[in-house]
Specification:
Chain lengths: 462, 462
């Protein structure tokens, strides 16, 4: 095995073994996940670079760690021992916008927001909008089946991918999925590879489904005396036929941290806040606002305020999107540690989830803040801790795991949108039944018999 | 191998070997597909019946042919030599409607329209509406990832299935997919099994995603002097941002056959007709109608008529849904033969597709009629022939195949929604590239190593 043989097959300079460069590319944003041991970094400039690298790795049984923007928080892009890091971050072209078919062909390294900006002049939208929309790549979004704020109306990444070009475990290039709006010719390998976190193949191109430009929404903000009543209002509104295009929940701790971080003018008395948007026609949106207000007040809302000014609406969403910096600001002042979870549960179980989080706060003494893509039941509790305090760190890690158990207890999943990666690999077997674990192992073994594609992560412990 | 051993494990009377009964259950609605050789029929009454049957078949390496309503037209439910027919048609209960989660749990034998009727009092809709909506089952819809008329706005069956309970090839019962709105824990086995046509496992329960009751649409009908201009109007309207909830095309031959079949009052001079619906708010729908009218007229429409009367709209859709009986009426008078294709192509390729169909009519002398879920580019050409005339039958079969080749030539797929089954199994390898064929075989072999699940069909010749 001679890496120079590989380097000679690649675009000039694509391969580096410089330890500093390799180390700088060896991890994503996850905590507590190992990331040592990579032997090289390939910065692919072309599909051929990806194929050559995987072919080489296959021939020599070397682990390959596919990487996009490394913005993930589950360790899915972290180096493993003896691995080649294979980054497609530099492949970021928009290849073709097809207006009559409403599709766009893109390279995997393209940043989600850059795609959105590219499409706007065509009056077209690509809806999926993970919190990382400004820094995460389409390839990474596909690898994790990324969600976001608009899922409650528009769905997740898988719903917007028509076809993908994939490099398989032996370096073969193939296309999964038709170029057409519909197609049922054979098994849905496209859907299988979406969300497979680099364990089945490497996406080198995607044809994405688009929709006409999303209209400006109207926005309502409701504040509640406590968390439980806010979450109950979410479940009630969805049961009553509510059709929001965004439906976010922030708990008291999150509101306090936002107010400490910036001048957001949020109600200091609020026990929780809901942010809801409707992007139907003005008449329908007005009906929805009325219905939401009624449900919120019945659930005990202290105040419901409405804005149909696009700038106001955008500012409110920007406030919501500031939660992670606000968390980091808080964490920085309290020892630096934050573990962000993403348990998704049935909507009606959210009040009970909130109760269980309260018990966890009491039993651990830790600060645990909660935001949620509440319309989908997709919760994001954050556990804060002093990273210099080994005892508290251990308690936080245990609390992070306990949150997954609470999710499972309530009929939910350990991960709604962040993925399993390294961080949650030990928990996947707790969620999946025996038949499902067998089927997943069987598929993985069949498609990557040498287990070279992102080993030691998602499927490693089922 | 003693079938009485199996019978003893099943609900009383579930298994029969009566040759007449077995023969009567040995085929679906496809032409030219063999259907002999079944050794028994199991009419499962429970999940346990399905498990026991598959376990028995697995132990004795007996082919199992899963069956729902047998309304398919690709031969996917047809008997094969030495097989056990395993029908879930009798398992047709609605198990639970969950209004806050907007889901319904159903058994696989439930008829699609019966589900829709059941949901209406809850103000909830299950959108997928294949042409067979009144006779096809949810399990069959899942097995083929069925489409329909509303796909252009709402998507296909896969988009509305949250989770499925599946009996695997060895009889193990498992659940694929979370009960929650989002979930990325592990590989998407749910999506893989949807559309797998009974080759990977047998769906015994499904949790379906619902939406609030779909509003009454407004309807427009545009008639054109010829086929090409009607199809061009479809591509133009979609490129201009049109958002129909239904967008159907009927060619001259189809209009003539409808007029001969019933009193539909369709324009006798029309070369083609578009039927379009919009179910947005009244103001938005009015905008869409105006935009559609302008595009249609620019494309050469002879007339554009609008109706916002729900009864009128329903009558127009009923006319469209009468096309298959009208085809059968025509076929009956012309030797009985009809082969219905379902090639899906890019929308912009539809005018060229129409030209190629015209050439095929000329070269074969056959009547070929065309309807299409045009908004999706999903075409349904029907080739008519005298089934008593061997020469003409052979010509028709060749024309049916040539239509698939035209679809592939134009960047499309051999099947948009009917499935591969037996009828198109020889063509699947023409559509899929080498890597895709390898991946599909690998997955099939891994999940059904004895090849007992619906063998000799979809994946048999890749």
């Amino acid at each position: 095995m001679d890496l120079q043989t590989l380097a000679a097959q690649l675009t000039d300079g694509a391969l580096t073994t410089d330890p500093d460069v390799v180390a700088a590319h060896s991890k994503d944003e996850a905590l507590f996940c190992p990331h040592d041991g990579a032997i090289a970094l390939v910065r692919a400039k072309s599909v051929e670079d990806v194929q050559a690298t995987v072919r080489f790795a296959h021939a020599h049984t070397i682990p390959v760690v596919p990487q996009g923007a490394r913005s993930g928080i589950s360790g899915g892009a972290n180096a493993t021992e003896g691995s080649i890091l294979l980054s497609v971050a530099a492949m970021q072209d928009v290849l073709e916008v097809n207006t009559s078919e409403r599709t766009v062909r893109v390279q995997p390294g393209l940043i989600n927001q850059d795609l959105k900006d590219h499409l706007r002049p065509f009056n077209l939208s690509y809806p999926p909008d993970p919190g990382s929309v400004g820094i995460s790549s389409i390839g990474g979004n596909i690898a994790t089946n990324a969600g976001g704020l608009c899922c409650v109306k528009y769905g997740v990444t898988r719903d917007f991918v028509r076809s993908i070009d994939v490099v398989l475990a032996d370096g073969t290039l193939t296309t999964f999925g038709p170029q057409t709006a519909k197609g049922v010719a054979g098994l849905d390998m496209r859907g299988l590879f979406i969300g497979s976190e680099g364990t089945l193949g490497i996406v080198v191109e995607a044809t994405l489904r688009l929709i006409p430009l999303m209209p400006d929404p109207v926005t309502a903000v409701a504040v509640f005396p406590d968390e439980r009543s806010g979450l109950q209002a979410v479940a009630d509104f969805m049961a009553a036929g509510g059709q929001p295009s965004l439906f976010e929940f922030l708990d008291r701790a999150s509101l306090t941290m936002l107010n400490s971080y910036g001048d957001f003018g949020l109600n200091e008395e609020a026990g929780s806040m809901l942010l809801v948007q409707f992007d139907q026609s003005p008449a329908e949106a007005a009906d929805m606002l009325g219905a939401f207000g009624a449900v919120a007040e019945a659930a005990g809302a202290l105040d419901v305020a409405v804005s149909d000014d696009p700038a106001d609406s955008a500012a409110l969403v920007a406030t919501r999107r500031s939660i992670q910096p606000a968390y980091e600001h808080f964490a920085h002042a309290h020892g630096g540690g934050q573990l962000l979870d993403d348990v998704c549960i049935p909507r009606a179980a959210m009040p009970a989830f909130c109760d269980r989080l309260g018990e966890l706060r009491e039993s651990t003494g830790l600060t645990i803040a909660l935001v949620a893509h509440a319309g989908d039941g997709n919760t994001h509790p954050s556990v804060f801790f002093d990273a210099a305090d080994a005892q508290q760190t251990a308690t936080a890690e245990a609390a992070f795991e306990q949150i997954m158990q609470i999710g499972l207890d309530l009929g939910g999943t350990i991960t709604g949108e962040h993925g399993v990666g390294y961080l949650k690999k030990g928990w996947l077997a707790k969620e999946l039944d025996e038949g499902s674990r067998w089927a997943q192992r069987a598929v993985k073994d069949a498609l990557d018999p040498k287990n070279i594609l992102n080993p030691g992560k998602m499927l490693a412990e089922i």
